[in-house]
């Protein structure tokens, strides 16, 4: 009779096959990448990961041409703890048929996703794959479709993160694109069609990196939200992002007992933001000054830099920051900035993260590029997202708040909750010079000294209309505050609005502009 020890030994042999060889690991290391299991070890708290489906078998013992998959079929799935909180993962193993996706490989991913959804915890996909397993044909394609469907089903319920750490080509790119956040390492790449197809169809010579490298997607396309130097940094960033997100949409984001004083004044703000509305500054300094311990986790940091978004904490509560960046394009809203803000606002609303808007915006970026690119429908995305959001919406107007930009960013009309302005704020349909040119063209032209008349009228306009007091007089902002009180006031406002309950009229779903 077989002894228990022999049974155990046979199990161990099978699992050892699934784990691959030292040469497999070495091949991956040579590419400057970690293996699937090394990545998982860094993603989860030490010793907490439990693998499932280790012994799943591929569709064929031997593929045409003698190629073989092995136990596990090229993807490691399971669950564990990240910062002490539960999460599921699927990490593709590039050492098994290039990490290509066959039917059973897909089944494992879908199973892990369904579990994450059912048990209400985040799902992290680590992509490193040559795409659809060519030998499995439509079984493989069908697998992708089921993954896409699971992504859509889980959307807005559990956080979904995609970490691209190797190739991600063809239709394989659409699972990440359906998730909440994409991370890429510098030596990963994503594209719908590779350089060879591009050359054949478009007669365009382009390298993998130029076409879809990590940097391209972080800076040009905005497809990825985070760029990491290497696998280690990427996994650390994913852990940090999860520290700001709840396990699921029914949960609150994780509260951390604060060290930073909620009554702390921020006198430095009076220096950081120049009173002269034409002078640029870095709004990230304002954000750091206000948030707990100056910690700001920026999202989409390299794309559409005229809008800054990211997470931080106020008196221990997670908040999402949406801020114009006067240092880039004078903080104007353009197509990319609007898309970036809209996505982030929807993330915050989904995961019960209050939104704090820091406004200093001269308006929408003018020009044919913007109009032809559809600034109308794309700008509408941000309005839609602000209006749809039922989480607390707080705002400070730091300086400029002009025209359409005033309306579309968290205004009272969009059910902004508690809105503040600094005393230097300029809230008006347009700047004084532009307004005087339109309203008093003839008076200026016919004056004995037109330039003196123009200056006089600009000053008068500035005094009468272009300040925070007209809005304060109408209750369109809730108070004018001293810059140094910004943190203190925001914390008070946040704590009173945390119990906010607001619902929409029932509907299947809205139709967000796109
Ligand atoms: C089956 C594959 C494979 C695939 C790689 N392999 N991709 N096997 N199907 N899609 C196998 C190779 O045959 C090789 O097997 C092993 O994996 C390692 O591949 P290498 O090319 O030697 O490795 P490397 O040089 O690191 O290059 C990796 C790669 C390259 C960049 C991923 O293999 C590649 O370009 N693969 C094809 C990519 C692709 O076009 N995929 C289809 C996309 S279309 P051996 O046994 O020799 O080690 C798609 C449709 C999805 O995905 C549609 C969804 C809607």
Written account of the structure:
The protein is α/β, with parallel strands linked by helices. It folds into 3 domains: 57-242, 2-enoyl-CoA Hydratase, Chain A, domain 1 (Alpha-Beta Complex), CATH 3.90.226; 269-429 and 467-497, 2-enoyl-CoA Hydratase, Chain A, domain 1 (Alpha-Beta Complex); 432-465, no CATH class. It has 21 helices and 17 strands. Strands 10, 11, 12, 13, 14, 15, 16 and 17 form an 8-stranded mixed β-sheet that branches. A 7-stranded mixed β-sheet has the order 1-2-3-4-5-7-9, with helices on both faces. A two-stranded parallel sheet has the order 6-8. Helix 4 packs parallel to helix 5, helix 13 (335-350) packs parallel to helix 15 (375-388) and helix 17 (432-439) packs across helix 19 (450-464). The longest helix is centred in the N-terminal third of the chain and has 18 residues, at 137-154. The chain is elongated and about 110 Å long. It starts with a helix and ends in a 17-residue tail after the last helix. The model has no long low-confidence stretch (mean pLDDT 96). The structure holds hexanoyl-coenzyme A. Hexanoyl-coenzyme A binds next to helix 5 and strand 6.
- What is the number of beta strands? 17
Which small molecules are bound? hexanoyl-coenzyme A
Q: In what range is the share of β-strand residues? A: 15-25%
The poorly predicted ranges are none
Q: Structural class of the secondary elements?
A: alpha/beta
Mean pLDDT: 96
Number of helices: 21
Shape: elongated
How many angstroms separate the termini? 67 Å
Helix content: 40-55%
- Describe the sheet with the most strands: 8 strands, mixed
Assigned CATH superfamily of the largest domain: 2-enoyl-CoA Hydratase, Chain A, domain 1
Q: Give the class-level CATH name of the largest domain.
A: Alpha Beta
Any idea what the CATH architecture of the largest domain is?
Answer: Alpha-Beta Complex
């Amino acid at each position: 009779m077989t002894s228990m020890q022999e049974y155990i030994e046979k199990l161990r042999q099978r699992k050892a096959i699934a784990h691959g060889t030292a040469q497999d690991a070495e091949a991956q290391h040579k590419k400057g990448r970690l293996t699937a299991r090394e990545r998982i070890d860094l993603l989860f708290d030490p010793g907490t990961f439990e693998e499932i489906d280790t012994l799943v078998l591929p569709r064929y013992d031997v593929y045409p041409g003698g190629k073989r998959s092995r136990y596990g079929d090229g993807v490691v799935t399971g669950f564990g703890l990240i910062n002490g909180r539960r999460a599921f993962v699927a990490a593709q193993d590039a050492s098994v048929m290039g990490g290509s996706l066959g039917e059973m490989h897909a089944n494992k991913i879908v199973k892990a996703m369904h579990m994450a959804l059912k048990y209400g915890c985040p799902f992290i996909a680590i992509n490193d794959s040559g795409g659809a397993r060519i030998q499995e044909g439509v079984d493989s394609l069908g697998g992708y479709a089921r993954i896409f469907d699971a992504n859509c089903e889980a959307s807005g319920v559990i956080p979904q993160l995609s970490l691209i750490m190797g190739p991600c080509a063809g239709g394989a790119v659409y699972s990440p694109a359906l998730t909440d956040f994409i991370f890429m390492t510098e030596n990963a790449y994503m594209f719908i069609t590779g350089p060879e197809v591009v050359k054949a169809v478009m007669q365009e010579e382009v390298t993998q990196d130029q076409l879809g490298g990590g940097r391209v997607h972080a800076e040009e396309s905005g497809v990825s939200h985070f760029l990491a130097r290497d696998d280690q940094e990427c996994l650390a960033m994913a852990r940090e992002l999860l520290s700001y997100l709840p396990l699921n949409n029914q949960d609150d984001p994780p509260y951390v007992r604060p060290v930073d004083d909620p009554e702390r004044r921020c006198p430095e703000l009076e220096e950081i933001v120049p009173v002269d509305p034409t002078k640029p500054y870095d709004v990230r300094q304002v954000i750091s000054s206000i948030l707990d311990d100056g910690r700001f986790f920026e999202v989409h940091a390299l794309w559409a830099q005229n809008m800054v978004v990211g997470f931080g904490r106020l008196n221990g509560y997670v908040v999402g920051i949406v801020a114009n960046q006067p240092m880039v394009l004078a903080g104007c809203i353009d197509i990319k900035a609007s898309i970036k803000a809209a996505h982030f606002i929807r993330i915050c609303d989904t995961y019960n993260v209050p939104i704090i808007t820091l406004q200093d915006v001269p308006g929408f970026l003018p020009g044919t590029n913007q109009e032809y690119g559809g600034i109308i429908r794309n700008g509408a995305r941000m309005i839609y997202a602000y209006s749809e959001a039922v989480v607390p919406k707080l705002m400070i107007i730091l300086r400029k708040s002009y025209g359409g930009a005033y309306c579309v960013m968290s205004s009272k009309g969009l059910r902004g909750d508690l809105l503040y302005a600094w005393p230097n704020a300029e809230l008006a349909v347009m700047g004084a010079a532009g307004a005087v040119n339109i309203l008093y063209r003839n008076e200026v032209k016919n004056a004995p000294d037109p330039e003196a008349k123009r200056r006089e009228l600009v000053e008068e306009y500035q005094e009468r209309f272009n300040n925070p007091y007209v809005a304060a007089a109408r209750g369109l902002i809730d108070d004018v505050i001293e810059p140094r009180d910004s943190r203190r006031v925001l914390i008070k406002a946040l704590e009173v609005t945390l119990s906010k309950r607001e619902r929409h009229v029932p509907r299947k779903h809205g139709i967000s502009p796109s």
